[in-house]
Amino acid sequence: MFGWFNCRLRIDLTSKTIEREPIGEEILRAFIGGRGLNDWILFNEVPRDCDPLMPDNVLCFAPGPLTGTSMPMNSRCEVSTIGPHSNILGDGNGGNLFPYKMKLSGLDQIVVTGSSNEPLYLWIDNDTAELRDAHDFWGLDTWKCSDKLKEIHGDDIGIICIGQAGENLVRFASVILDKYSSAARGAGAVMGSKKLKAIAIRGTKKPDVADPEALSILAKEDRNFFLTNPFQKGTVSRVGTHYGLGSWFPGWRNNSKYLSKDEVPAQIDTEAWKDYEIKRAACHTCPVFCKDVYKIPDGPYTGEIGSAMEYEGIHCLGINCGILQPSPIMAMQNLADKYGMCVIPLGNCMAVAKDLCNRGLLAPEDVDWLDLSWKNDEDQIELIHRVALRQGFGNIIAEGEIGMDKILGSDSSDYNDQVKGTGRGNFPPGIFALAHATSTRGADHLRGRSWAFGENEIELFEGLVRDGYIPSDDVGKLVASEDACALNDCIGRCKGSVNSWVNAVPLVWKYPLYTGLAKILKAATGVDFTEKELSDAGKRVYLLELTINALRGIKRKDNRLVQRPELRDTPQGAAERQQFEIMLDDYYNQRGCNTATSIPSREALIALNLSAAADALDKNHPETWDGPPLWPLGQYPSGGERS
Ligand code: SF4
């Protein structure tokens, strides 16, 4: 085979067995790679009623057919599981060296099942794979763990690992790739529940491609675009996602309002971060260099170096928590990376806690006498330690957005903007609110929301709409964006740090919609995908994800509009809900779902060759969804080294 190795590595941690198996041409063609391949495993293998932190949950890793080829921006890996913060699909996409090394070891997918009683790590050296004792690694943060693995196995390896947060089953713990890249939605906690500390890989086999010459020409065109395009070269390569501070309206103090460009304080605006930058960095094979490498100039972490401080860290750990000084924000970002936690739910939960303290709804003794006033960064940093180590009030935040709401009650849920376990703010009806509601992994900006405006490449986007490749109505634009992003997460390419169609769909600046991608996949895999097949692949992945969630009880009411209590009981609030429900009807009609339940219809599933999904929906499955099953707080592991 070309492009793919047609190889899945299965690790059963209960029996300690490791097996290789073919994935099958039909499945590769239908799901392509990455997110699609992982969804197919989760659909088939995870029991509908499994507790995400129990051994019957499954953890999947998959790059894509372009990973390891001459195409740029391809060192990306999809990490998928049932999210312990949400009890629905939880997947994240991370990049650096690990995905590239994984592909070069001859693997298209790693599937981890069961759980071990003792800490282990997986060592893969091309064709050999073995489970090794990880007692010496348990309790270490991700940076120390990565350094130690390199001491043992050498520098030419890719590493994915968890920190203390994953070990302690913090429900939004991430897996960290090569120290500075994170794949979120709780995979770190699932890895911790399985007692798998890390996967380290050496791979040296380039995948064969069907037409190396053609692929090389297409890759060159794609690479040249990013090296010469004024926005990519002049902005993204220079400031990365810091660009968003001036254009994405970050939420202020638990999203009480959204800051315009002029309102973002100068010391943390786009250009300010250049003062702390010591160089630029990129994922392996990427010409964009969207990431910074920074050095903390003062405070308790003076001189510490970190990388990939993104807009989300500045927004969620900083602005939304009322912290406006760069040094503590960098320190908090580093702590999140070291402990292995996603900055979005971590920041959101801390912002909610601060908001509740500020409103007098949480008393000082409720939060261990920490001073959670808006401007106090020292106690916020202390809280991060306590979350990762599950100590005191930190143990409540470690339960994630839904868990925290359940423990603290309606005061918390009133000011917590989460949809299906992840918060992205409260917005009136429109594309933002609809996209947050329909995202298959909880409210999210990367499922399609940020593409549905054609952000950053407005002319190109308008051209695609004008020529009929993308629908002209808002709901249709969102559906098309969700499909394109799903497809992108399958091929093994980065959607781009600064969201744009030119990142998500290769060569879309030259050929309409999927024509360029079809050429690339033909040169890489030899498969002559039609544009319709590619479009269907994106739809198939999305509908399968809606099915996975429906099988866990998700219904229309869960795909909701976030409204704060001040608005909820007013005529305006009622009118906005009505407007939102009209858009949701339209969305379900366009997706082929039942408008009353949100469940995909048999006809829509069969049209995409998903009869197994249609059959599964006909059988018994939970009638309702109520978030993750929470454990008694004293039952979780806690502790580990303080970072
Ligand atoms: S654009 Fe940024 S995040 Fe994406 S592959 Fe390149 S360096 Fe990595």
Walk across the major sheet and give the strand order: 2-1-6-3-4-5
Major β-sheet, in short? 6 strands, mixed
Q: What Rg, in angstroms, do the CA atoms define?
A: 23 Å
Low-confidence stretches: none
What spatial form do the alpha-carbon principal axes imply?
A: globular
Label the structural class.
Answer: alpha+beta
Using the coordinates above, name the CATH class of the largest domain. Alpha Beta
The end-to-end distance, rounded to whole angstroms, is: 45 Å
Oligomerization status of the protein chains: single chain
Description of the molecule:
With 643 residues, this protein is an alpha+beta fold. The chain folds into 3 domains: 8-202, Aldehyde ferredoxin oxidoreductase, N-terminal domain (Aldehyde Ferredoxin Oxidoreductase,  A, domain 1); 242-416, Aldehyde Ferredoxin Oxidoreductase Protein, subunit A, domain 2 (Orthogonal Bundle), CATH 1.10.569.10; 431-618, Orthogonal Bundle (Aldehyde Ferredoxin Oxidoreductase Protein, subunit A, domain 3). Helix content is 39%, strand content 13%. It has 25 helices and 19 strands. β7 (120-125) and β8 form a beta hairpin. α7 (212-228) crosses α20, α9 packs across α10 (326-339) and α18 crosses α21 (531-550). 58% of the residues are buried. The mean pLDDT is 96. The structure holds iron/sulfur cluster. Iron/sulfur cluster (SF4) binds at residues 73, 95, 282-283, 286, 288, 290-291, 494, 496-497.
